[in-house]
Amino acid sequence: MAHFADTEPGFLMRSHTSLLPARRTLRRAERRLRRRPVLVAATLAIGVLATAGFTTAAPASQAEASGSLTDFALASYATAPSVSAEEVPAPTAVEKAVADATAAVTAATTVTTDIAASGLDVGTPDTTVDTTELEGAVDQLQRAQSLPAIYSADFTDAVTVLTASVSEQAQGLRGKLDAAIALKAQQEAEEKARQEAEAAAAAKAAAEAEAAAAKKSSGSSSAAPRPVYATGGAVGGTSPADAQATARAMLGGYGWGDDQFGCLVSLWQKESGWNYQAYNRGSGAYGIPQALPGSKMSSAGADWQTNPATQIAWGLGYISGRYGSPCGAWSHSQSTGWY
Q: Which of 15, 24, 152, 175 is the most buried (most CB within 10 A)?
C-alpha cells in the first residue's frame, strides 16, 4: 500500500478532484455532457464485460472447489431484511430532481388551462410554458441512473436548472391570472354599484315628480268644472244619485273632504255618468270607475258587476294608490284624456 501511494500520488489527487460536485449552471452541465458520451459508453461496456465474466467464471470455480453445484447460491437471491416505516430512506438527489420537474410541468400545464378557461386578458399574448427541454432532460436523467453518481450528477444539475426556469414562468403566469381575476371582480362590483346608484336616483326623481304633481293637482280643485251633483240619492242604492251618496260616505276613510268629492263627481261623470252598468265596447272598460278590464274590481268583491258600492270601493283605492287624491286623478284625466 505504501508503494502504491509513493508511485501514483497523481492518481489519488485526480480521484479526489473528480469527486468534487459539478455545479450550478446549465451551460457548464451541457458542456460536460457533450464530453461524456464516450466515457459513459466505455464505462457501460466495462460494466457489461465485468458482469459477463463474473457470471461465467464464478460458477466454474465454485464447481471446481466443491465438486458439485448443488450448494451454490447467488448473493442476489438473499432475502432482503425488512424495513420499517420509520427506516424508509430519504429520496436521492435524482429522485428529488425528477419529482420537482414533474411538479413544475404540471403547474405549467395547469396555469395555461386555467387562463384559457377564464377568457381573461392576462397582459401577454403567450400564455404557454415550453417544457420540452425539461422533459427531455428528465428522460436523460432517468436513463443515466444506472451509471455511477459521478456521471449522473451533470444530468441532475441540468434538470434542476431547467425546473427552476419552468417554475418561474408558471408562477409568473399564475400571478398575471390572479391579477386579472381580481381586476374583473373589482370592475363588476363598481359597475353594479353604479347601476344601483343610477336606479336609486331615477326612482327618487320619479317619486319627487309624482309627489309634486299630486300636490299641485290637489290644490287645483278650483280648476275642475262645476260638478253635477245628483240629488235624492241614498247610500247602498244603484241609481247615479245613490252611487254618489255612497262615494261621499266613503271619502272620510281616505282623509278627503268635499273639495275632493267635487273632483270625483266630475271624474266619474265623465267616465260613466255614475252608471254601474256602463260598458265601453271599444276598450272593454266597465262600471262607474271604468276599470279596464272590469274583472279587476273582483279584488274588492265578487259582486263587482252588480254592486255600485263594490265598484266605488275599488275605484277609490285605485285613485289613492296611483294619484293620491280624486283631484290628482281629475287633473291627469284633463291633460291626457284618461286616468
A: 152
Instruction: State the sign of the Cα–Cα–Cα–Cα dihedral 24, 30, 35, 37.
Output: positive
Burial degree of 267 (CB within 10 A; 0-12, 13-18, 19+): buried
Classify residue 141 as exposed, middle or buried by CB count within 10 Å of its CB (0-12, 13-18, 19+). Answer: buried
DSSP 88: P
Neighbours of 221 (CB within 10 A): 21
| Bond prior to 293 in cis (omega within 30° of 0) | yes
For residue 187, count other CB atoms closer than 10 A to its CB.
10
How far CA 96 is from CA of 91, 133, 233, in Å, comes to 6, 18, 104
pLDDT at res. 89: 61
Rounded average pLDDT over 35-61: 39
| Cβ pair 305, 296 in contact under 8 A | no
**Largest pairwise CA distance in the chain:** 150
Rounded distance, CA 100 to CA 163, Å? 7
